Structure formats: C-alpha cells, structure tokens
Amino acid sequence: MKKVFLLALLIVAPLLATAQFAPWKAGAIVSQQAVSSYGVKKCFAATPIPDDVWARMQGKSYAAGCPIPRTELRYVRLLHVDAEGNTRLGEMICNKAIAKKVAGIFRKLYENKYPIECVRLIDDFDANDEKSMTANNTSCFCYRPVNGTTKLSNHAKGLAVDINPLYNPCVRTKNGKQTVEPAAGEPYADRNKDFTYKLKRGDLAHSLFMKAGFKWGGDWQSLKDWQHFEKP
Ligand SMILES: [Zn+2]
Q: How many whole angstroms from 4 Cα to the centroid of ligand 1?
C-alpha cells in the first residue's frame, strides 16, 4: 500500500509542478518546490516567438510598419522574486542579439532574490508605456518612437530593458521644469531617498548589465532614465 502511494506521488508531483508552468502565465506565483521539480534551467530560456505570443503582439508592441522581422526577436521566459519574496513567472521580448545574455542576467537576479515586481509583455498594458511603467512592469521590446520625438527608441529594436520603472522613473529637466515618466513615479525622482525597488549604481542589476556591456540611463547628462539599460 505504502509503495503504491509513493509511486503515485512520484508520478503526480511532477505533473502538478508542470501544470504551474505550462501554459506559462507571466505574473503567476510558483513555489520553490514546483521550481525544483520542474527544473530551474527550463525556467530561463530564449526561444523564437511562439504563435500565441506573436498574436498577442500584433497591433500593439508589434505595430504596423515595424522594420524588425519576427526572426530577429526572441521570447524570453524567466523567474523573478518580488519584494514580498514571492517567486513569479516572467516573460519578455528581446532582440536575439541580447536575449541569451538577458536570460542569464535575470537568472542571477532570481538566484540572489533581487526584487523585481512584475515582468509581463507590454501588450498586456495595450503597449502603452505609461500604463506599463505605472504598473512597475519590467519590459524590453516595444516598437515606438522615443517619447515626444520621431526617433526610434532602442526598445523598438528590443535592445533596451527597463527595470522596475515606477520606482526608477525617467526624469527630464528643461528650463528648470521637471517632467517625470511615469507621472506616478514623481515621488521616486529624488534619488537621495531610499525605497523598495530602487535601482542603485553598483547594485546587482546595475553591475550585471554593466558587465554585459549595456549602457545605463542613470549615467546620461541630458536626462536621467534610472530604469533603462541599453545595448549600443
Ligand atoms: Zn527604457
């Protein structure tokens, strides 16, 4: 009897674990046990964009006229730990030139419990950057010009990653007037304050992106884009 029970457990446990990962529902909380039983390696992968994901992107992050072909982009699956210590499923679209590197960076961030609140496709926020940033959503690809210009942003090529954007907003100062994006990130424009999800020079996220050859928006002079890392 005991043997039968153990055998059943051996078969059922991995099936139950797999059910938490397939389909991959970004934002879902998973247990440590489920991660070990499913395999942490399988949770960090860069693959060609699956058809269902591609369909989600149409007319949103992949808007009409996007010059980057689907084959240049990758779907990155990842795990991340939020400030409450929950392990969550995440997903991101990146240029294939950086996809593996990005998956590796997020694996190290996960292993060290670097807090990241939400990593979902910007399509879940109607490809609206303000909405996605206000939800503190970490993201990469979105075909759009730099806010307020006609220039293509590095996000349009899938070559820039924004980390915890609500708490690490983009701050512009013109003629003494300060603009903060997202608007809800205004309390976090003052970088002398300390708060959860604040990205700091020399912290793990900053160090990993720097080591991988990215440039940080926190180093810019014309404006400070504290959330932004890009591959030139
Ligand atoms: Zn950015």
A: 54
